[in-house]
From TrEMBL:
GO BP field: 2'-deoxyribonucleotide metabolic process
NCBIfam families (UniProt xref): PRK07559.1 (NF005734)
SUPFAM superfamilies registered for this protein in UniProt: dUTPase-like
Residues annotated as domain 2'-deoxycytidine 5'-triphosphate deaminase N-terminal: 2-162
InterPro entries (UniProt xref): DCD_C (IPR053811), DCD_N (IPR010550), dUTPase-like_sf (IPR036157)
Protein name: 2'-deoxycytidine 5'-triphosphate deaminase
Ranges where the 2'-deoxycytidine 5'-triphosphate deaminase C-terminal domain occurs: 166-354
Pfam families: DCD_C, DCD_N
Gene: dcd
Signal peptide coordinates: none
Length: 359
């Protein structure tokens, strides 16, 4: 029971539970998830949809405004909704279900991405026993993006039964292993995560607000863009508050450092009372090992924040999300931070596409 670790995901491919025309590459497999690759065909649609009783292909026959190929790359424009084929297909046994989420790098770019399935009636949720294709709904909100066949925007977790920790189990784990470094962690339906507006470093950097009408971001280029071309830094002004402008996108950080011990995986979910006012984070999966091995200091969670219809004041220390933890079915063979991880030990970090000033 639990979330399948990397080694078990590899076995799913060997057992043809997970198939693709191009073989899986080793770096697609993360400690507790698999990165999904875009296929070649994309449709621009009028609006987002759920397939309900039909297949996605059937719905696209009615809803596609235009289809194009991603083989040599294509720009996805802001404000438009696209449905892209995903290369991976599933033939899940009855006890395995799956859940999808944007990769952290996708969420940090404000690219709204969800996975849909044939006959699906929920986004990002794949029923136990599902046999069929996967599709990604993609809608860039702030920056136009360049994607191609093989680009990875989403990730999927496989779940054998249910293994979510109760609040009592979380309280015990908080005591033993310090899930968040808060003096008195608030635990109710998960562990509370709050926003840090006190600022980091000498400059008291609080976060970044995305610029509008910028250039393109190629999702496959790492360290390629100057921060100042895409983001305005925000500094603490002593008020301990930040006014979120409606329609603007912000990257902020959590006050708590977060630890995900090796036998667990976590997911950040919205803090419900705030759902109507502003939206925090699109990317919620936290890998086993995240924040571990950082000398006990953990790593901050990144908060992707957007206000809805009215300006909204958030305050330093305000609770904005909850971390739910699930058991791993088995300890992953490698943990987050072992190799090639972009966000281990982070404080306030934009997506991997941006390079620090002057570098
Ligand atoms: N809102 C979020 C979501 C995730 N993370 C952290 C926890 C994850 O373990 C880590 C990496 O997440 P992904 O695997 O989604 O990120 P990428 O695949 O984009 O990056 P990497 O190349 O580092 O795996 O980022 C975070 O700090 N804040």
């Amino acid at each position: 029971m639990g979330i399948l670790p990397a080694q078990a995901i590899g076995e799913l491919a060997a057992a043809a539970v997970l198939t693709a025309d191009q073989p899986l590459t080793a770096d697609q497999i993360q400690p507790a998830s698999l990165d999904l690759r875009l296929g070649s065909s994309v449709a621009r649609v009028r609006a987002s949809f759920l397939p309900g009783a039909r297949s996605v292909a059937q719905r696209l026959e009615q809803l596609a405004l235009h289809r194009f190929n991603l083989a040599s790359g294509a720009v996805l424009e802001t404000g438009c909704v696209y449905i892209a084929e995903i290369q991976e297909r599933l033939a899940l046994p009855a006890r395995l279900s799956a859940a999808a989420n944007p990769k952290s790098s996708t969420g940090r770019l404000d690219v709204f991405t969800r996975v849909i399935t044939d006959q699906g009636d929920e986004f990002d949720a794949i029923d136990a026993g599902y046999h069929g294709p996967l599709y990604a709904e993609i809608s860039p909100r702030t920056f136009p993006i360049l994607v191609r066949t093989g680009s990875r925007l989403s990730q999927i977790r496989f779940r054998d039964g249910q293994s979510r920790l109760s609040d009592a189990e979380l309280a015990a784990l908080q005591k033993d292993l310090t899930l968040v470094d808060a003096a008195a962690a608030s635990i109710q339906d998960g562990v509370a995560v709050s926003v840090d507006l006190a600022g980091f470093g000498e400059q008291r950097l609080v976060g970044y607000r995305a610029k509008r009408f910028t250039g393109l971001v190629d999702v496959d280029r790492v360290g390629a863009y100057a921060i100042s071309d895409f983001w305005e830094p925000l500094h603490a002004d002593g008020s301990g508050a930040l006014v979120l402008d409606p329609g603007q996108f912000y990257i902020l950080a959590s006050k708590e450092a977060v630890n995900v011990p090796p036998d667990y995986a976590a997911e950040m979910v919205p803090f419900d009372p705030l759902v109507g006012e502003f939206r925090v984070h699109y990317a919620g999966f936290f890998d086993p090992g995240f924040g571990n091995g950082t000398g006990g200091t953990g790593a901050r969670a990144v908060l992707e924040v957007r206000s809805r219809d009215v300006p909204f004041i958030i305050e330093d220390g305000q609770i904005v999300g909850r971390l739910v933890y699930e058991r791993m079915a088995e300890r992953p063979a490698s943990l987050y931070g072992d190799a090639g991880s972009n966000y281990q030990g982070q404080t306030l970090k934009l997506s991997k596409h941006f390079r620090a000033q002057g570098t």
